[in-house]
């Protein structure tokens, strides 16, 4: 049966209280689904298939770790303070992150090593991470969370980000949705204050036909009206780009974009883009995994003059001297 998709104009006319504002991460499956999708995408002759398989192993390790992970929850007083000031309920950029994330990092490295078949470069990277002291690791975590590109070690970043994801996904999975405040800032996760990685138009149940932007840190999904920029909240100058449309006619480009399971949604107001996937057309679509696996689409949209709204946490750009 073809699932019904609710169009943007109708979404705006509906009672907002009838639309689930958030979709909290499903603790038992969040990273497992990501791992499975990464493996699926790696088997489709992807140019970075080897890297996708490594990241699938990392996501699988995250799921096993999450099953027994139990980070300290914020106090009720802290939650209520953040609610009163419309702040993220467990902000990632905080001085009170604690050592739990570093413990998570070393456990993830243990799992990657136990899986075997480490390349010399990967073995060297794991050894380098283990040799870093707490201050150096925390400095990398701060740079990743604050998107300070010039300070991020691109090779180490995926593993550090993965450890941080375990901590904040654990927290998000145990937070009562009713406690999460509304934020005034567009494109910011109300749970942890991080930015989305991509968005998905879901099928089934209360989420049928609605678009959700998935946080790149805690995996919480926030409802966003379609044809609206997830970075600046503008509804002007929104366009969609799909693979195979470079040399197509305008009519064919429109048809390709309409039918594609994955598109890049660009905004002329802020000059950025994020990807959007349609579960109706690819049921196993997982925003984090599909974004990582679609570098060719990034190149296409970059050539059109748009920049990513934020880097993928598992694929940081290598900066040149001109970029720094």
From TrEMBL:
One Gene Ontology CC term in the entry: cytosol
CDD domains membership: FdhE
Protein name, UniProt field: Protein FdhE homolog
PANTHER family (alphabetical): PROTEIN FDHE (PTHR37689)
Record's keyword annotation contains Cytoplasm: yes
Gene3D superfamilies: FdhE-like domain (3.90.1670.10)
Ranges of residues in domain FdhE C-terminal: 228-315
Domain of life of the source: Bacteria
Ranges of residues in domain FdhE central: 188-226
Cytoplasm keyword on record: yes
A Gene Ontology molecular function term of the record: ferric iron binding
Function statement: Necessary for formate dehydrogenase activity.
Predominant location category: cytoplasm
Record keywords, A-Z: Cytoplasm
Family membership: Belongs to the FdhE family.
Localization (cell): Cytoplasm
Ranges where the FdhE N-terminal domain occurs: 19-182
Any one Gene Ontology BP term: protein maturation
């Amino acid at each position: 049966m073809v699932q019904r998709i609710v169009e943007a104009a109708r979404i705006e006319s509906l009672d907002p209280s009838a639309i689930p504002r958030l979709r909290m991460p499903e603790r038992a499956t969040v990273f497992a689904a990501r791992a499975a999708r990464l493996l699926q995408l790696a088997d489709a002759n992807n140019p970075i298939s080897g890297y996708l398989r490594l990241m699938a192993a990392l996501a699988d390790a995250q799921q096993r770790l999450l099953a027994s992970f139990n980070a300290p929850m914020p106090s009720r007083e802290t939650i209520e303070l953040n609610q009163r000031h419309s702040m993220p309920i467990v902000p990632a950029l905080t001085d009170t992150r604690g050592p739990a994330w570093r413990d998570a990092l070393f456990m993830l490295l243990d799992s990657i090593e136990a899986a075997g078949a480490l390349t010399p470069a990967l073995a060297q990277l794991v050894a380098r991470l283990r040799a870093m002291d707490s201050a150096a690791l925390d400095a990398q975590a701060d740079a990743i969370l604050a998107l300070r590109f010039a300070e991020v070690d691109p090779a180490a970043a995926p593993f550090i980000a993965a450890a941080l994801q375990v901590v904040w996904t654990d927290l998000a999975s145990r937070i009562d949705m009713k406690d999460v405040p509304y934020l005034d800032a567009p494109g910011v996760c109300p749970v942890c204050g991080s930015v989305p990685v991509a968005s998905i138009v879901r099928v089934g149940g209360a989420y049928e036909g609605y678009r959700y932007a998935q946080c790149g840190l805690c995996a919480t999904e926030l409802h966003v009206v379609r044809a609206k920029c997830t970075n600046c909240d503008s509804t002007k100058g929104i366009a969609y780009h799909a693979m195979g449309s470079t040399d197509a006619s305008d009519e064919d480009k429109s048809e390709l974009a309409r039918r594609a399971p994955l598109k890049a949604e660009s905004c002329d107001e802020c000059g950025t883009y994020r990807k959007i996937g349609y579960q109706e057309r690819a049921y196993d679509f997982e925003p984090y995994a599909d974004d990582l696996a679609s570098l060719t689409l990034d190149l296409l949209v970059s050539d059109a003059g748009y920049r990513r709204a934020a880097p993928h946490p598992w694929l940081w750009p290598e900066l040149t001297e001109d970029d720094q």
